[in-house]
Amino acid sequence: MIYLDYQATTPLAPEALDAMLPWLGGPGSDGFANPHSPNRAGRAAAAAIEVARDAVAALLPSGGRVIFTSGATEALNMALRGSGRRRLAVSAIEHAAVLDTARALDPGLGILTVDGDGLVDPDVPIPHGTGLVAVMHVNNEIGTVQPVDAIARRARAMGALFLCDAVQGAGKLNAPVEADLIAVSAHKLYGPKGIGALWVRDGVHIDPLITGGGQEQGARSGTLSPALAAGFGAAARLCAAMRESDAAHIDTLWSRARAAFAGWTLNGSATARWRGNLNIRTGGLDAGRLLSECRTVAISAGSACASGSGRPSHVLRALGLSDRDSRTALRIGFGRYTGEEELDEAVAAILAAAQAQGVSA
């Protein structure tokens, strides 16, 4: 199987796995200790978590704190529910973790539209009285990179907080320095599943979403996993060290893939995007059928979180695509561990599967 679904999750970096192993607590090891216990083993586990916290914080702006969570969905819920702001405005192409939560909190939710390239205009109208604005950094379905800092400055000028879902951009692009709240996830940057973080700007108060012992800085209760934190930290350090080489590799893969699919239509901006995300469509294609028949390649037709819903992509709808056109779209994602030859092999398999449907583009 050739894996080309990097927006859904990334492979675990070997360095991250190595960092996790001592804290899994196998026979003869005290790495299983509770990091909230005052004994020596507990203090060692707590120290490992703080080292990881510093590594994750290095990917984010200065002047804030990192709160570990179970993932980005929890981090986004913590921000939206814990901010105390009940008049919300979010972009039309946010992840369901933002859209569904915001709708539950604010029945009069303001929706910030995008243009045909999937971009929010920096001057998009924001409803008067909005208390929190949420715009994601890099879209998970089409890869567009939003002008988040410009929108954040406008939000602050009107007295609102700005929340950024930076899951797809963290470790790859410069952090949104103007944001007040930033959500990230380890498994989207070559770390383990089950851990994420919410960055909170100094001076911003967030009420706990999960109450109890208050183990995580009083903001989140529950025993933290030193192993998951260590893996997250190692992955974050690796992203910082390999950012330029990763980007150069992605550019090479993007150029090869774009040339191979030259007759297909690109969904989203060709320039304001993360090039590890190639979302394309062609008339007459049944994307669902292609996914089931092209069994040697792992790709998707949109967000993994909504893949079983049967609903057309709300992101592609927001770009102005019809439901029919949306169902002809494929998302191909590649990254650090994608080889050029395996990409070529995967592209050939996808094109062959399309041709079997009578699609020759």
If you had to describe this structure to a student in words, what would you say it looks like?
It is a single chain. This protein has 361 residues and is of the alpha/beta class. The chain folds into two domains: 2-7 and 243-355, Aspartate Aminotransferase, domain 1; 15-237, 3-Layer(aba) Sandwich (Aspartate Aminotransferase, domain 2), CATH 3.40.640. 34% of the residues lie in helices and 13% in strands. The chain is built from ten helices and twelve strands. It has helices at residues 14-20, 40-57, 72-82, 96-105, 148-157, 226-260, 287-293, 314-318, 323-326, 340-355, and strands at residues 2-3, 64-69, 88-91, 110-112, 132-134, 161-165, 181-185, 196-201, 265-266, 277-281, 297-298, 329-333. It has a seven-stranded mixed beta sheet with strand order 2-8-7-6-5-3-4, sandwiched between helices. A three-stranded antiparallel beta sheet has the order 9-10-12, with helices on one face. Strands 1-11 form a two-stranded parallel sheet. Strand 3, helix 4 (96-105) and strand 4 (110-112) form a beta-alpha-beta unit. The model has no long low-confidence stretch (mean pLDDT 96).
